[in-house]
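#structure-requests
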Amino acid sequence: MGIYGQDWASYQSATPDTSGLSFAFVKVTEGLSYINPEWPAQRDHAKANGLVWGAYHYPHMANSPQAEADYFLAQVNWQPGDLVVLDWEGYDNANANVSKANQAAYKDAWLKYVKTKLPHNPVGMYANTDYWRNVDRTGYFGDFLWIATAGQAAGDPGIAAPWLFHQYSDNGVDRDYCHLASTAELRAWALSFQAAPAPAPTPSQETDMPQWITGRVEPGA
């Protein structure tokens, strides 16, 4: 059980193959100056083919999280049900000299600030297990966690935290899994934030989850 999606950046075409997909995440911005030139076409293509659509920002964490969030948010005419994501990783030159403590603080500040700007959209975080276990300090991921463990089976990321999406492969294109049963169920969850924000449904196969409040678990779980 579960549904599949992909995440796209400028490396993909404006109209990727959507066969068998239920959702797509698209890179929109990076830092304070980069915009993916393909993102509007990729968004329109995803929505035209019935996919739930999400947008993500890649940070340069020496900058102000609020300034980067404003730059990202200003690019999109946000619609009900759009997913909003911080791509929280920093293996590039722009983040090499930013301490891990500051990277962790950036993450929390960005997510909380964006939620004040888009209270009726789900706002969440992408991270791989290295960042989740070794850089994160608070366990805060906003409304949902998108965890990356390339090379493990779809739906088995190997963490106890209540993830919603799992990036399980980066071979050619980034491939993702969501533990919800259908596109309709994912869309209904995303649209539920229009009335009152709801916690992400937890994956039923996880039996060792810690007690948690929406958007927070113990670090490293």
